[in-house]
Amino acid sequence: MAKVLVVGGAGYVGGYLTDEADRAGHDVVVFDKLLYEDTYLKEQKFVRGDVLDRDSLRPHLRWADCVVWLPAIVGDPACALDPELTIATNVETVRNLVADFGGRILFPSTCSVYGAQDGELTEDSPLAPLSLYAETKIDAERILLDTNADAAIFRLGTLFGLGDAFSRLRADLVLNLLTVRAVVAGRMSVFGGRQFRPLLHVRDVATAMIPNVDASDRGIYNLHCENLTILDLAERIKTHVPEATVNITETSFQDSRNYSVSSARAQKTFDFSPRWTVDDGIVEVADLVRSGRIKDISIARYSNHDALRPLVISEVTPLGTIHGVRGRVGLI
Q1: What are phi and psi of 93, to 5 degrees?
Q2: In the predicted model, is pLDDT for residue 329 greater than 70?
Q3: Rounded to 5 degrees, what angle do the CA atoms 257, 258, 263 make?
Q4: Whole-angstrom Cα distance, residue 50 to residue 290?
Q5: N or C terminus: fewer CB in 10 A for the chain?
Q6: Bridge partners of residue 201, in order along the sequence
Q7: Residue 186, phi-psi category: left (phi > 0), alpha (psi -120 to 50), beta (remainder)
Q8: Which residues contact 250 (CB under 8 A, 6 or more apart)?
Q9: In the predicted structure, residue 330 carries a pLDDT above the cut 80
Q10: Pairing state between β 196-201 and 158-160
Q11: Cα separation, 239 vs 217, whole angstroms
Q12: Tens digits of per-residue pLDDT, 219-260?
């Protein structure tokens, strides 16, 4: 049993991950600012704190055997709100982490680091970041690698689905967003649609990370369950929401990312095998919306950009609202 500090453990990824760490028998403490949540109601040991306050985090790092480092400003639109805050949160806190902690580190990066490339990409493929978000993740990866930290780095595909029963749904992720639009509005608007995304269920982050808490494998691992174009994803959603239509717009927009990945290294190294499929995610999100368990999917807390926008001092242009759901397909 390891002493596991899950920093950012109250978020979209951390909710189910902390449950899996408990089930594996680890002693878990969650350290979180509650940026997107009003309360933390789970039974895990909880410390409210901000990773930008280095002194408040240090005592908990001294306690831990393993740190799962989840805090970050995530997504291109959210990172663009305040670049200085993004760099401080996504990069400088990682630099502080390796200086203050000598144990095992599990770190989520992103497949966005590949930018726009054809073919199936591996961890050795060239990096071509197209956003500040991707650039900060590359910088954080390099800090962990250059300092020879005992770290496993997971480049996550585009997440989807539901986490635990307490964590918010993110409605700014492409599968979740399209599914919500299909159910609520009866149509999905796809811009271009030929862009590939490697998709990964949010609960499968834990599938990969928790077995690595007390393992010795280091380095970078891609994680995904299926590579799909956004148009193919919309058509897949339509099989579960047959009344919905798909509207394709050829208008170009700022997100030109296009990438497919291989997760063969993770499969070979620690037997990674996703437990949840794209169809599982579509069905659970559609059922959640149909059941009325979300009162108003348009409120800011369901989008990283919309939730953060009132908290930073930046002038930004709204991405627009379509049928009460903010965001533009392909941005996340």
Answers
A1: -65, -30
A2: no
A3: 120
A4: 36
A5: N
A6: 160
A7: left
A8: 192
A9: no
A10: parallel
A11: 40
A12: 999 999 999 999 999 999 999 999 999 998 875 555 678 999
